[in-house]
Specification:
The chain is of the alpha/beta class. 39% of the residues lie in helices and 14% in strands. It contains 15 helices and 14 strands. It has an 8-stranded parallel beta barrel with strand order 1-2-3-4-5-7-11-12, surrounded by 6 helices. Strand 11, helix 14 and strand 12 form a beta-alpha-beta unit. The structure holds 6-O-phosphono-beta-D-glucopyranose.
Length: 467
């Protein structure tokens, strides 16, 4: 239970906010940019695509001024890989100017940059050439990008995020840039190979970052979906545990141990899915583990045991809602859901911090947390009190973790400004700042501070004493 405390967050804790390049920047034809696998991807023709997004590219100074007005101490953003290496290999110096400028502005405003090297935006040319992450060749191309960024920003950027939600990338075919036609075992094997390549690429980036910038902190952003037990039945408790092992610990175990847990290995073996980690990979990864875990936390999933005998292999799905013989998701009468069916559970954030710290003993950084909603602009105002309530409750839980002694570096609200949601365009907004456009109409792209902006500004000012 949360116990209200008058204490605020410690002075070194960073209050931040986050975005990603493809979701905010727009201006896809800028300075010889190449094509990414997301450029022509659209989940639904009614949704906004990424061509203009929030037009951050053309509103950079105004947007950083808003960050400063908000009182942000940290801003997490990602670079567009194809702006910097349009074909994945050849440097386009002009593509770096935007990030040079952004970082200068952040530092001038005393905002700590948290730079994500890769957030879904994979170069199309590399997928065409060798299949992208499914080939070992991808490691060298990722390292080319990482090394360039480490060298260029070594005196400016201390916090680095290697890969955003690798667990999500390998579960969703279009995020890997591979065909949707692959299904069943073919897809599962392909995704496993990609997972191993990405894990090795991350370990190499960590090694290099530590060599080039000795006082840096580098880690991945993972997406832990905490499982709640559907009933007090011990079988459901076991199912909840297995859900976590199979949907997110497999990823963090790969990062920290260079191998999967016994349960995950058994899961793969029983389904004839390959386990591509070799002893050599394991040794290397164990020597180059993350300094922190970035947590993108949105929701819990309530699960109960499933006792149906498994007869076939599932194809790829975004979030597994059932795994024959292991678990299935179920309703939770204690929790509300967002309009998109995401279970809202602030305590889940606290569980994520406690569980990940206890398993790996490294600091945590909340790299994303927020509520997607259908905000409405009425008389130049956005009354997003539902978002204030979401952020308030999650920050309360985090404050409790910090006061209990868990090392939490900071918190980045998702998102700083409205952006194009990964799967729901502009109708699912996350920002503290409203962008005046819709899915089909660009309007004037004006920036308007939402009620949540003012609430977060006050929370930062009080360092969370108001929570
Ligand atoms: C995270 C991603 O998975 O979830 C973000 O890192 C994304 O890019 C966020 O926007 C919310 O998901 P969605 O689909 O609602 O935009």
């Amino acid at each position: 239970m949360y116990v209200k405390s008058k204490e605020g967050f410690p002075s070194e804790f960073l209050f931040g906010a986050a975005t990603s390049a493809f979701q905010v920047e727009g201006n896809l034809n800028k300075q010889n940019r190449g094509e990414s696998i997301l450029d022509d991807y659209s989940t639904n023709e009614k949704n906004a695509d990424f061509s203009v997004a929030s037009d951050h590219f053309n509103h950079l100074e105004e947007d950083v001024q808003l960050m400063s007005d908000l009182g942000l101490q940290a801003y997490r953003f990602s670079v567009s890989w194809v702006s910097i290496f349009p074909d994945g290999k050849t440097l386009n110096e002009a593509g770096l100017h935007f990030y040079d400028h952004l970082i200068e502005l952040l530092l001038k405003n005393k905002i700590e940059p948290i730079l994500t090297i890769y957030h879904f935006e994979y170069p199309k040319a590399l997928v065409k050439e060798y299949g992208g992450w499914v080939s070992e060749k991808s490691v060298a191309d990722y390292i080319r990008l990482a090394e360039l960024l480490f060298r260029r920003y070594q005196n400016k950027v201390k916090y680095w995020v290697t890969i955003n939600e690798q667990d999500h990338v390998i579960k969703v075919p279009h995020r890997l840039g591979i065909s949707n036609n692959l299904s069943g075992l073919d897809y599962e094997n392909t995704a496993q190979v990609a997972n191993a390549n990405m894990t090795v690429a991350q370990a190499k980036a960590i090694e290099l970052c530590h060599q080039i910038i000795p006082n840096s902190k580098i880690g991945p952003a993972v997406n832990p979906i905490i499982a709640l037990s559907g009933s007090s039945s011990p079988k459901d408790r076991v199912a909840a545990h297995e859900f976590e092992e199979l949907t997110y610990y497999y990823m963090t175990d790969a990062y920290f141990r260079g191998e999967y847990s016994p349960l995950y290995k058994k899961y793969l073996a029983e389904r004839n899915i390959i386990n591509p980690f070799t002893d050599e990979m394991t040794d290397f990864i164990k020597k180059n583990t993350p300094d922190f875990i970035g947590i993108n936390y949105y929701m819990t999933q309530t699960v109960c045991a499933n006792e149906i005998e498994r007869t076939d292999l599932r194809g790829p799905v975004i979030i597994k809602d059932a795994e024959a013989g292991i678990f299935e998701t179920t309703e939770n009468n204690f929790l509300e859901k967002s309009k998109w069916g995401w279970e809202v559970c602030p305590e889940g954030l606290r569980l994520a911090v406690m569980q990940l710290y206890n398993r790996y003993q490294v600091p945590l950084l909340i790299t994303e947390n927020g509520l997607g909603a259908n905000d409405e602009l009425v008389n130049q105002q956005v009354s997003d009190n539902y978002r204030i309530s979401y952020l308030h409750q999650h920050l309360e839980q985090l404050k409790q973790c910090v006061q209990e002694g868990f090392p939490v570096i900071g918190y980045c609200a998702w998102s700083f400004i409205d952006l194009v949601s990964g799967h729901n365009g502009m109708s699912k907004r996350y920002g503290l700042v409203y962008v005046n456009r819709t899915d089909n109409e660009l309007k004037n792209l004006a920036r308007i501070k939402k009620n949540s902006f003012h609430w977060y500004q006050e929370t930062i000012k009080q360092r969370g004493r108001n929570l």
